[in-house]
Write a structure and sequence with these properties.
Blueprint: H1 15-33, E1 48-53, E2 56-61, E3 64-68, H2 69-80, H3 86-102, H4 117-123, H5 125-132
Antiparallel strand pairs: 1-2, 2-3
Bound molecules: flavin-adenine dinucleotide.
The site of flavin-adenine dinucleotide has 5 residues, from helix 1.
Length: 133
């Protein structure tokens, strides 16, 4: 539950929410110091985007949607710009370039369903216990 009428059941777990909350926190700390009333958090949805493959992304803005190569370029640009400092931008750019050239899958997760041992234990308690003994 939140005090934000547009997101009563909670905010999406996105960086934009964290950034906006951080900005409001700084603002409210100044208010607290000056003994002014605090302001509640209202999330402003600026849209969301995701890379789905090499050269492909989706961009979902409050007033439109686009995908494909242009969306991929927009994703790269938007994520590079807020990185603090020129040196960090260059480091990130080279890191991305390396991953792009080598198809480095370090950050991709492939999750396959496994047999649920706890479920087996509940359904067939004797069999599981015998198996361990
Ligand atoms: C795999 C993954 C992919 C994601 N992809 C996206 C995405 O594509 N787009 C998007 O918008 N969001 C994405 N998110 C979510 C986004 O990363 C989070 O919403 C955002 O980082 C939250 O920011 P934060 O500042 O609240 O927390 P964090 O970024 O987690 O920062 C908290 C910091 O506090 C430090 N810390 C924790 N405990 C202590 C302590 N006791 N003392 C000192 N320091 C401490 C941590 O080390 C960390 O640096 C993703 C998250 C994950 C895990």
């Amino acid at each position: 539950m939140t005090a934000d009428p547009d997101y009563e059941k909670g905010h999406p777990q996105l960086a934009q929410v964290a950034i906006q909350q951080g900005t409001l926190l700084a603002h409210n700390l100044r208010h607290l110091y000056k003994k002014h009333p605090l302001e509640p958090f209202r999330y402003v949805n600026k849209g969301s985007m995701a890379i789905i493959a090499k050269y492909k992304a989706v961009v979902d803005l409050p007033k439109g949607f686009f995908k494909g190569f242009f969306a991929w370029m927009v994703w790269l640009f938007i994520h590079l710009i807020p990185i603090a400092g020129f040196r960090n931008k260059v480091k990130l750019f080279f890191s991305w370039s390396w991953s792009f050239l080598t198809n480095d899958p370090t950050l991709r997760l492939i999750i396959r369903p496994r047999k649920n041992i706890f479920l087996q234990t509940v359904q067939k308690p004797n069999k599981i216990i015998q198996g361990f003994i």
